[in-house]
Amino acid sequence: xxxxxxxxxxxxxxxxxxxxxxxxxxxxxxxxxxxxxxxxxxxxxxxxxxxxxxxxxxxxxxxxxxxxxxxxxxxxxxxxxxxxxxxxxxxxxxxxxxxxxxxxxxxxxxxxxxxxxxxxxxxxxxxxxxxxxxxxxxxxxxxxxxxxxxxxxxxxxxxxxxxxxx
Length: 166
Prior knowledge:
By secondary structure, the protein is an alpha+beta fold. It is built from 6 helices and 4 strands; from the N terminus they run αβαβββαααα.
């Protein structure tokens, strides 16, 4: 059946323009790290300031993640990847890994950048609120200044979506 209304045509156009690609994430270890569920191509792209297309492969090993892309080949900690909406919420064990990692090298600036990007990318007030709720769950991991930066980005996006909930 062909789309008839303008709204149906726009929906059809949006769906037909979606790109489905094979995941670039490969798990090489028989034992899955507890934080592996947070590893995404999008987070790696933001972490290394490259586009998704410039990532060739992300290999999840037992204790570290290897990101191979245009001009980069780096090992990073699982704890460098921030929690996302598509998987289970963070557990106390996850917080243990993050605190252990951040004693040595804080990843908070990247997390701020990641969550601000997610706020800006949110297409609906409901999605924006979900991301905000996730940030609220992990707010103890941020400095006060970092949390303020994230809250400002949330407010800005909230206003642009004309959402007056929270």
